[in-house]
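Worked example 3. Consider a protein that binds fe (ii) ion.
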Amino acid sequence: MSSQPRLDEPENFFLSGNWAPVDEEHVDRDLEVIGEIPADLDGYFMRIGPNPTYVADVSAYHIFDGDGMIHQVEFREGKATYRNRFVETAGLLKERDKGGWIWKGMNQTMADMAAGNPLPEGGQFKDLVNTAMIVHANKFYGLMEGGTPHEMGLPDLDTIRRDDFDGKLNHPFTAHPKVDIKTGEMMTFGYSPVPPFLTYSVIDKNSRLVHTAQINIPKAVMMHDCAITERFTIFLDLPITFDFERVAKGESMLAWEPENGTRLGVMPRMGEDADIKWFEIDSCMMFHVANAWEDGDEVVLLGCRANRTDVANATTNAADESLDMRDQLALLTEWRMNLATGEVIERNIDPNLYCEFPRINDHLAGRPSRYAYLAGIDAELSGTPFTSEIKYDHTDGSMTVHPLGEGRKGGEAIFAPRKGGTSEDDGYVILFTWDEPNQQSECVVIDAQNFEADPIARIKIPHRVPFGFHASWVPNAQ
Ligand SMILES: [Fe+2]
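Given these inputs, the predicted complex is written out as structure tokens:
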């Protein structure tokens, strides 16, 4: 990989510092540990993120544009191994063959689409896989919302194949499908700037795509996450709209447009558009939900709500500096939607603790969960402000904070259940941290039931792990 250009471009925040990509792939065994790795921690902690190889225009590069790279720490018998690999999509392989960029990136491509300019052979958008990962039907997938899932191998993170579910997948596939552990079903959706704006699918426990429905929404919107309950799927129709006409006026195709309305849609799992109950709510942005479940006539949704967003500078109107930038930071929020009365009640959990990247014990997706784990945000910091990890307790609304330490930044953590665990939080919270003063990446393991204590183990990673998006935990089979 050493022939690839090394990118560190101070003029673009997302190509510099610990966002700068790395170009080498490594395997390092028996890593140095501060503390002790629990002997019963047996599996793979991974984080994926954008790691561009070729960039068409440094100033126009968007954080969503980078080729995917997965960073992994394998835990086995009290020892840790680090691996990192590119996700080798067809797009990346084509650019490697050429030795340069083919796709310009999100912002420039949308402008070209609107202007009718010629687009690259092989598609308008590069088939990126840089956002999240999921296990379904014993397959491990890398995901990105504009693309198609790619099956990845473990432990080696080799890119096995692009999976379109025997050709039945006819829409983009969100980075945040939801798997019902009890039924083995995976619920997914895709959005599009051209009709149909929203399409939903269910894939059964045997990887068969068994249901697809087109969903009517007023306008094309960017839709990043969804939620499930035992019987329902919940769609987030939030006002980040696509509009080709805006581009003709020299504006971004994406914009924050609260006048389009903000609504949550609750649809039976195998339902159709006509079955959806929509709940109008105050305009907001919610990149990520923590969980949802049913409680009598109510559907409860827990997620990270911000007043608005500029989608990391992808819109031209929401970044107005006269507005309070804290409006773009999220607070943990609960919505209770009453299916009998049509009423919805919104409740902010804690007005002072900004947070993102909510995760739960994944076995409880769609069912009542007591705990959530969130990346805490220091509102005084700009850039990448994840300076703590938070444990939320739904029974009393409490938020317990685990500071990451002076000069350290985190990101999404996962919950790894302890083998033989007896309660929801019996396990470990694991994340990557970046120690800015010491230029050191670590993988940190926290006891979920002793959350405020120092980490049980801090594994020193012998290479820099750039900041990224989502994390995943895949236990070993035995
Ligand atoms: Fe996400």
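Take a moment to read the result before moving on. The first strand starts at residue 26 and ends at 28. Confidence is low (pLDDT under 50) at residues 1-5.
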